[in-house]
């Protein structure tokens, strides 16, 4: 079979799809993963062939409409979600038109798309082949659909579609305690397998110095020193400065330029590229932006986490993780950094957080592996 995997223009989305794509490739299928130029390294470092659909940066799709006009910032959570749906739609439109060219020489039998990879149902509809969704995290999908459909109106009209097609099946990486039904498609469990760029293991990665707790803080791979479209860098810098006051080793997982800008704030620890899948089990707490892959990586490691979700749509899930006792969900607002540090201090001193996180870990480990679920793609042919 020929299988096309469609990622989003972020490294996290490519890494989230990589375990299933590799499993399909290892089963003898011909696999291609589509993404932007920004995700090409993530795809190829995962041992997969990459098809770049655009060289435009992620920030361009977020900040500008199709005519190149800069978009105003959202004023409410509802506007943010609708605008995010349109952003995913803008990228999907670019990807869809590029994939039409790919399909002339690589015509897939099945298209597999990530949670918000809306190019996948479009190209599948055009080629009249099955579309399978693989979620890349545990967050809701349905609230983004209206914005995506508004943005993709012309592409949908070209295909005589009134709505974005639902997948024939959804392979869901959410642990049972966090599952959300996204639509009417059959939902099948798929074990989340952490995946990221790898590096040579250095001795400090193996564990914290004797007598010290280990905290890892990250704002994801998209954080930039310029805060182009959000305030992630400022939040990271303030967190690092505040967390350094705790008696703990501090690891800052960040792109090189960002790490160089905060390294002087760390009295004990390291900043730079850190293979989170390898280091997470040795951490006593992971403090992060509530990115789906970061959250699932911590759950898979059985490591307590402090999550800083910016929007209510993410808070609905992070609050559930807090309710189960596996971490703390710190909402935006005044003193958010100090509240996050206080939460981290609680997590470090209360072993019940580790026990609850290990409960999630056990549940994830019982889910069918990507190798076992390749059959769900094969069955759709």
Kindly describe this structure.
With 381 residues, the chain is α/β, with parallel strands linked by helices. 50% of the residues are buried. The protein has helices at residues 11-26, 40-45, 58-63, 77-102, 119-127, 145-151, 153-158, 232-243, 256-262, 276-279, 292-301, 312-323, 336-349, 352-365, 370-378; strands spanning 2-6, 30-35, 50-52, 110-113, 131-134, 169-172, 187-189, 213-218, 248-253, 269-272, 285-288, 305-307, 327-329. Strand 12, helix 12 (312-323) and strand 13 (327-329) form a beta-alpha-beta unit. The protein folds into two domains: 2-190 and 367-379, Rossmann fold, CATH 3.40.50.2000; 203-349, 3-Layer(aba) Sandwich (Rossmann fold). It has 15 helices and 13 strands.
CATH topology-level fold name of the largest domain: Rossmann fold
Shape: globular
Q: In total, how many beta strands?
A: 13
Q: What count of domains describes the coordinates?
A: 2
Rg, nearest Å: 20 Å
Number of contiguous helices: 15
Distance between the termini: 8 Å
**Oligomer status:** single chain
The biggest sheet amounts to: 7 strands, parallel
Which short descriptors sum up this protein?
alpha/beta, Rossmann fold, 7-stranded parallel β-sheet, 6-stranded parallel β-sheet
Which secondary structure elements does this structure contain, and how are they paired or packed?
Blueprint: E1 2-6, H1 11-26, E2 30-35, H2 40-45, E3 50-52, H3 58-63, H4 77-102, E4 110-113, H5 119-127, E5 131-134, H6 145-151, H7 153-158, E6 169-172, E7 187-189, E8 213-218, H8 232-243, E9 248-253, H9 256-262, E10 269-272, H10 276-279, E11 285-288, H11 292-301, E12 305-307, H12 312-323, E13 327-329, H13 336-349, H14 352-365, H15 370-378
Helix pairs in contact: 1-15, 4-5, 4-6, 8-13, 11-14
């Amino acid at each position: 079979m020929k299988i096309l995997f469609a990622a989003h223009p972020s490294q996290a989305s490519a890494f989230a799809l990589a375990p299933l794509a590799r499993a399909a490739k290892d089963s003898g299928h011909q696999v291609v993963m589509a993404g932007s130029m920004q995700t090409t390294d993530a795809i190829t470092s995962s041992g997969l062939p990459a098809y770049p659909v655009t060289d435009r940066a992620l920030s361009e799709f977020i900040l500008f409409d199709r005519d190149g006009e800069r978009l105003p910032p959202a004023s409410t959570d509802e506007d943010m979600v609708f605008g995010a749906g349109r952003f995913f739609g803008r990228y999907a439109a670019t990807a869809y038109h590029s994939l039409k060219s790919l399909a002339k020489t690589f015509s897939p039998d099945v298209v597999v798309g990530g949670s918000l990879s809306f190019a996948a149902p479009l190209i599948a509809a055009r080629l009249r082949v099955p579309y399978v969704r693989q979620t890349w995290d545990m967050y809701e999908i349905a609230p983004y659909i209206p914005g995506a459909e508004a943005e993709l109106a012309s592409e949908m009209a070209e295909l005589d579609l009134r709505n974005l097609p639902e997948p024939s099946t959804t392979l869901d990486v959410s642990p049972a305690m966090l599952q959300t039904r996204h639509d009417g498609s059959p939902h099948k469990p798929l074990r989340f397998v952490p995946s990221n760029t790898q590096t040579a293991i250095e001795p400090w990665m193996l564990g914290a110095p004797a007598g010290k707790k280990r905290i890892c803080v990250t704002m994801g791979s998209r954080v930039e020193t310029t805060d182009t479209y959000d305030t992630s860098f400022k939040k990271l810098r303030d967190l690092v400065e505040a967390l350094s006051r705790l008696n703990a080793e501090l690891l800052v997982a960040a792109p090189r330029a960002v790490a160089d800008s905060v390294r002087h704030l760390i009295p004990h620890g390291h900043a730079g590229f850190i293979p989170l899948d390898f280091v997470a089990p040795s951490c006593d707490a992971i403090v992060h932006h509530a990115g789906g892959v970061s959250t699932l990586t911590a759950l898979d490691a059985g490591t307590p986490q402090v999550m800083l979700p910016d929007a209510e749509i993410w808070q609905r899930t992070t609050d559930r993780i807090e309710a189960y006792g596996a971490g703390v969900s710190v909402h935006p607002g005044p003193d958010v950094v100090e509240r996050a540090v206080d939460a981290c201090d609680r997590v470090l001193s209360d072993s019940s957080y580790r026990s609850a996180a290990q409960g999630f870990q056990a549940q994830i480990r019982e889910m069918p592996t990507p190798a076992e679920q390749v059959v769900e793609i094969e069955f759709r042919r």
